[in-house]
């Protein structure tokens, strides 16, 4: 099988996503029915974290065990990665011992260097630039609740960050529109996502961005690695809180999503994240189901 990495959303085609969403639904049904499914028995996944995580770790770790495989967990603090061993050397060594690697790190260039020197597939578990596994789960969740995302409108309210960049790639690939509203100074950079101008629209006012949206989504004001900017960002982002007024501008059946962890009273009001339009718990759970489909696909291809 040809070696395939998942470093950004645009690494797979629309057709491959259609397959993955179908597969994730099947794998989820098996999980809910307590049906044993061990296609990855004797396979090992290395999880490498250079930033904190709850969902990504639990979903990959539990998911790999459920598929019959096992997991090795490494962090910067407890491996030679934190003592300046070159990423290329780490990739050469780790990928001789495991079948699959997931990395959460800082610059996208770092995961790319790892992948270039890896003998096995590498999955992006979040970088400063992208978070493809999250958007995979988000779109799967949207489809479960509302059907196809093609032709729909997604409102992105907040930072022009890794989540925003990944949404842009997904919009271009799967044919939907993103309404983006960010504070001044925190705009998206289209070049990072590498997308055409016509798959998104920029709005100064977040209320306007939510108009007619099928899905309203946001993220923390300060991402991991940017903590020094926390206080400045709190002032800049004050009007970018998704509250019930914003949700009222969206379609009546609009969903709300957030990759979590969330800060109630900052980027989202409690009434929204804990309200009837919120899909955040399904969204979090679905990380596991879609990533099981992804791991199966990268290791075994189409079944
Ligand atoms: N959404 C997400 O990636 O969560 P964690 O940071 O907890 O992994
Ligand atoms: N944008 C956030 C997502 C956390 C899952 C971050 O990078 O910290």
Structural account:
This protein has helices spanning 14-32, 55-66, 87-94, 108-116, 132-146, 162-174, 190-193, 206-210, 230-236, 244-249, 270-273, 280-300; strands at 44-49, 70-75, 100-104, 122-124, 153-157, 177-181, 200-202, 215-218, 255-258. The chain is an alpha/beta fold. It has 2 domains: 9-131 and 286-300, 3-Layer(aba) Sandwich (Rossmann fold); 134-283, Aspartate/ornithine carbamoyltransferase (Rossmann fold). It has a 5-stranded parallel β-sheet. A 4-stranded parallel β-sheet has the order 2-1-3-4, sandwiched between helices. The chain is globular, with a radius of gyration of 19 Å. The mean pLDDT is 98. Bound molecules: phosphoric acid mono(formamide)ester and norvaline (NVA). The site of phosphoric acid mono(formamide)ester has 8 residues, from helix 2. Phosphoric acid mono(formamide)ester binds at residues 53-56, 126, 134, 259-260.
List keywords for this structure.
303 residues, four-stranded parallel sheet, binds phosphoric acid mono(formamide)ester, binds norvaline, five-stranded parallel sheet, single chain, 2 domains
Number of domains: 2
Number of helical segments with 4 or more residues: 12
Low-confidence stretches: none
Coarse structural class: alpha/beta
Beta-strand residue fraction: 5-15%
Instruction: Average the pLDDT over all residues and give the rounded result.
Output: 98
Q: Can you say what the CATH homologous superfamily of the largest domain is?
A: Aspartate/ornithine carbamoyltransferase
> First CA to last CA: what distance?
13 Å
Bulk shape: globular
Helix content, binned percent: 40-55%
Ligands: phosphoric acid mono(formamide)ester, norvaline
Strand element count: 9
Major beta sheet, strand line-up: 7-6-5-8-9
Radius of gyration: 19 Å
CATH architecture of the largest domain: 3-Layer(aba) Sandwich
Major sheet characteristics = 5 strands, parallel
Order of helices and strands: HEHEHEHEHEHEHEHEHHEHH
CATH level 1 name of the largest domain: Alpha Beta
Here the CATH topology of the largest domain equals Rossmann fold
